[in-house]
Design a protein that fits this description.
mainly alpha; about 75% helix
């Protein structure tokens, strides 16, 4: 552990936001050719194979005890199986990218309410103002989009379960997570996610796949960009800083996801949504400011 903040943290938030937001678009793009749990099983299986290959070559350090193994697996289940699984199910139920992003934008508020008791963090007044502004901006963006394409109740239910998954995974990682080699962390986490989604594929889906370049491109992007890079950045930022500040980044996901969905999928972005993006950006900036008089969080 070190008190100095590594230089990569300066670029990590922007890189994470771009990869995370575009992952929604890539997932919905690919789901036109494959069922949701089959898609996730294929995606997680590719990640596990890649990480197993790197583990054999690099021989990274393994968790020191059974407790550390369990914590890695629990975080992996919440972030991979529950979060991504329910996101894919919401898309399959007809939910638009922007509507899903709005529900998930509630995560910083939920984390801000739970973090003081769960992790011992203090969320200051300035951060709370930023969280509220961020949420307001996200609501404006997606409310405008919902007027064009109202969300389905089934899709919203799956989105709420996805919200529970990303919130629980973030809080569990902050309280119990320790620094592990990225290959080890990804291997264990995605293996837990694979075991979480594979049974649902076998029980409820026909496992029919329409192989096409669109599906392969979507799968490749999700495996490398969303699964390997974005998840690693998210867990590293949570360990290196306060979980409420990291979670505040999710307020920028709805605006960015809406723009990308407009560019790639043709989903409409009404004019009123643009001021909402500005409000969300201001809110995130405020929420990520350090509380006066507090020492910066230790970095991994």
């Amino acid at each position: 552990m070190s008190e100095s903040r590594p230089s990569w943290l300066l670029f990590a938030p922007v890189t994470f936001l771009v990869l995370w937001s575009s992952g929604y678009v890539a997932a919905k793009f690919g789901l036109g050719y494959i069922e949701p749990m089959t898609f996730l099983t294929l995606r997680f299986g590719c990640v596990v194979l890649a990480m197993a290959f790197f583990a054999l070559i690099l021989k990274p350090p393994l968790p020191a005890n059974a407790t550390e193994w369990a914590h890695l697996a629990i975080v992996g289940f919440f972030l991979q199986a529950m979060y991504f699984g329910m996101c894919y199910m919401s898309f399959n139920a007809g939910l638009k990218v922007g509507s899903l992003a709005l529900v998930l934008a509630l995560q910083p508020i939920v984390v801000g309410l739970i973090a003081p008791r769960w992790t011992g963090e203090t969320v200051g007044v300035r951060q709370w103002i930023g969280l509220v502004l961020g949420l307001a901006g996200a609501v404006i963006v997606i409310w405008a989009g919902a007027a064009v394409a109202p969300p389905t109740w089934e899709g919203l239910a799956f989105a709420c379960l996805a919200l529970c998954g990303i919130t629980c995974g973030s809080l569990w990682e902050k309280r119990f997570g320790v620094s592990h080699h990225p290959v080890t962390a990804n291997l264990v986490g995605f293996a837990a996610g694979l075991m979480g989604v594979a049974p649902f594929m076998f029980l409820f889906e026909q496992m029919h796949v329409v192989w096409s370049w669109q599906l392969l491109a979507s799968l490749a992007y999700l495996v490398v960009g969303s699964s390997l890079i974005a998840i690693s950045l998210l867990l590293a930022m949570i360990r290196a800083g306060e979980v409420a500040k990291v979670s505040a980044l999710f307020f920028l996901v709805p605006p960015l996801a809406a723009i990308l969905a407009w560019l790639v999928l043709g989903e409409t972005v009404p004019f009123i949504a643009w001021p909402g993006m500005i409000v969300a950006g201001v809110g995130v900036w405020m929420a990520r400011q350090s509380t006066p008089g507090r020492k910066p969080a230790r970095t991994v």
